[in-house]
């Protein structure tokens, strides 16, 4: 093997954020994920799209170490399943979903909610060091919530809360951030501001993001790749502009879908 090849191989291996080979998962005898292979590399941002019950949330549960694959091989952030401490791994993956903000007491200050992301707990029990406070303010500004640090979280709109949850996830300096239907419950202006904040992070290239949704119009700009899932199987995957088309989405959702693209975003209509 020549040196150039070795070098390029090494680069590929270090840039691998997630590698699943023929992964399957059964829960109580029911097959939820079937023979799924997927590689996510540094610098890519993936949307994971499919109908309700396709297995999207379950698949994120595998990345987070919440579900153990029943078959195949899984590597997350360079670690093979079975060879590492899941608690350590979880600290390096940020998770955002629509219900995290429900767990946070309304009277909590926004800045404390964000700082607590550093310590993987909801509440803070001691004063954070000044550099952590400074970093918290930085990530709040990154999601367009720089003004809200001193506010009680209960005073914020649903969309602002979701952006604070992203800032909280960024606090742990994750290499990978997974978002599971993060727009659920947001009104249109709140959703659009939230999606702009996610798009800015996607376009910055770090952390790598995996964004789960069953709604095409909730896919933020800046995502480079898409994986379509139906009944636990991949129906299409690859570069987003090649995957998110009417033919692939119609096959995935089993209904005639017409997709259009407008200003880096995708929109879908049912067209039988
Ligand atoms: N803990 C569980 N026990 C049994 N079945 C489950 C469990 N979690 C999910 N499922 C089933 O797995 C399938 C996929 O669910 P899910 O991953 O939540 O889909 P999605 O997020 O795509 O809507 C569904 O049929 C669901 O009923
Ligand atoms: Mg789900």
Protein described:
Helix content is 32%, strand content 29%. The chain has 272 residues and is of the alpha/beta class. It has a domain at 101-173. The strands form three sheets. Strands 6-7-8-3-9-10 form a six-stranded mixed beta sheet, sandwiched between helices. Helix 7 (188-204) links the parallel strand 7 (176-180) and strand 8. The site of adenosine-5'-diphosphate (ADP) has 12 residues, from strand 2 and helix 2. Residues 56-57 line the site of magnesium ion.
Strand tally is 12
Strand fraction: 25-35%
Distance between the termini: 54 Å
Q: Roughly how much helix do the residues carry, as a percent range?
A: 25-40%
> Low-confidence parts, pLDDT < 50 over ≥5 residues?
1-12
Rg (CA only): 19 Å
Largest sheet: number of strands, sense, barrel closure: 6 strands, mixed
Category by helix and strand content: alpha/beta
H/E element sequence: HEEEHEEHEHHHEHEEEHHEE
| Distinct compounds present | adenosine-5'-diphosphate, magnesium ion
Mean pLDDT: 90
**Spatial ordering of strands, largest sheet:** 6-7-8-3-9-10
Descriptive keywords:
272 residues, alpha/beta, six-stranded mixed beta sheet, four-stranded antiparallel beta sheet, 29% strand, binds adenosine-5'-diphosphate, binds magnesium ion
A few lines on this structure:
This protein is of the alpha/beta class and 272 residues long. It has helices spanning 3-14, 56-63, 86-91, 110-116, 130-142, 158-170, 188-204, 240-243, 246-253; strands spanning 16-27, 30-41, 45-49, 71-76, 79-80, 93-97, 176-180, 208-213, 225-230, 233-239, 257-262, 265-270.
């Amino acid at each position: 093997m020549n040196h150039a090849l070795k070098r390029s191989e090494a680069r590929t291996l270090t840039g691998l954020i997630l590698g699943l080979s023929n992964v399957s998962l059964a829960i109580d005898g029911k097959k939820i994920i079937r023979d799924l292979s997927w590689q996510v590399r540094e610098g890519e941002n993936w949307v994971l799209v499919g109908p309700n019950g396709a297995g999207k949330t379950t698949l994120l549960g595998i990345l987070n170490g919440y579900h153990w694959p029943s078959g195949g091989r899984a590597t997350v952030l360079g670690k093979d399943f079975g060879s590492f401490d899941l608690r350590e791994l979880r600290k390096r993956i940020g998770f955002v979903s629509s219900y995290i903000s429900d767990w946070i007491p309304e009277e909590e200050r926004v800045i404390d909610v964000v700082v607590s992301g550093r310590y993987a707990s909801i509440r803070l029990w001691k004063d954070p060091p000044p550099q952590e406070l400074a970093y918290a303010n930085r990530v709040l500004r990154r999601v367009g919530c720089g003004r809200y640090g001193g506010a009680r979280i209960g005073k914020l709109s649903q969309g602002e809360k979701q952006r604070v949850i992203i800032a909280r996830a960024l606090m742990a300096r994750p290499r990978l951030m997974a978002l599971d239907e993060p727009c659920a419950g947001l009104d249109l202006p709140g959703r659009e501001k939230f999606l702009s904040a996610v798009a800015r992070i996607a376009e910055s290239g770090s952390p790598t993001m995996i964004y789960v949704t069953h709604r095409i119009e909730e896919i933020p700009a800046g995502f480079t790749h898409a994986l379509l899932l139906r009944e636990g199987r991949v129906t299409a995957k690859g570069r987003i502009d090649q995957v998110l088309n009417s033919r692939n989405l119609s096959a995935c959702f089993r209904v005639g879908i017409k997709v259009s693209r407008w200003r880096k975003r995708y929109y879908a209509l049912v067209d039988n």
